[in-house]
Fold:
Amino acid sequence: MKPSLAFLLLLSLAACRPKTKVVNVAESSKLVSLVEVANPLYKSRLIKGFYPGTSGWLWTEQQFAVSLDVPVPRQTTFLHLSFAVPVELIKVANPVTMTTKVNGVEVDRTEYRRDGQFQIYRKVPEKALETSPAVVEVSLDKSADREGGGKLGLIMVSAELSVDEDSAMSREIAENLARQGYERILAERKQQMPDEKQREMMKLFHDIPIWRNMFFQNVRIEKNPLDLWMMQQIIYETRPDFIVETGTWRGGSALYWAYTLNGMGLEQSRVITVDIQNIHGNAAANPLWKKYVTFMQGSSTDEKIVTNIKKLTESHKTLVVLDSDHSAKHVLNELHAYASMVNSKSYLVVEDTHIDGVPTQKEFGPGPLAAVQSFLAEPMGKEFTQDFAREALVMTFNPGGWLRRK
Structure:
């Protein structure tokens, strides 16, 4: 049965999932609070009542159900359904009453007298959230006959258990929100893009001189902008007392860390940056550099510098970013020197692992990724895990280099 052209236009809007102020939350890829019913990734979440064969949406039977994980930590939760009432149903059954239950508890009962695109957004009672995954069941009091047999109900786009973004949201909730979003991107990427294609894109992005021509507050910064975005997320989550950076260069990244800390109101936090050169005068003139940043000139593996930084960061929450000499030997020495400074749940970020990991520069190596692999095989390295969710934005210069301490 084929819907009309006008109806397809309505569904194209639904498939785009219009912006709302509700968002899903979960701890990991194992928790699924949002189901896009036509996406093969969520096939196991369709309990009953769906007809196969379309892209972006699915026809349903008169009764259907999906499985959704309850957001964690527990907070006021809403059910968000995106669907359409087909003209084929309204022609033979007008009005139609739709009843929606979560774990057997009714959360909505609405009567529909016309076809078109609809969304419901209803608060879910606490007693309906005691069991996770929760069964979201929808039933219609009437149906239409379907060509080829069976009963025809709705056209379904998505179902979601979510929290209200505008309500008082804990940092833990916000972190979990971002984590599930990143995990979903990774899953979609794996499904739609072979590894070879991903490597090709990363190489192309590296070769186009975007990152060689970037400025932050009029200071040159040679970073992948998508990695900078991910770094601000990590800083938000870890709220470090110290960010330790090796490889200052012009000072753009240290200044970026300073602005991020300042924007979060972490006025007691500080940035320590190390380089053998002192060529960051433009950055040092910035007021936030003067407030937040301490520069140490010398080798990042110099024993005196490492000892000094250890004293400053001892018993403090510390995030470390390694971006100096990219030879495997030097990076491994840095890993040995700085890993112990990183506290549990914080990060040791090894940058530019792509130069011998994709590779983008076949003539280079062994480099940072080789050092990471050696480090992870050592006793100290066993305390870290590669956080692949930090590679969610497709093109990262640090594949395998986002190391999270357990």
Notes: Residues 264 and 309 are 23 Å apart (CA to CA). Residues 1-29 have pLDDT under 50 and may be disordered. Residues 193-405 form a domain with the Rossmann fold fold (CATH 3.40.50.150).
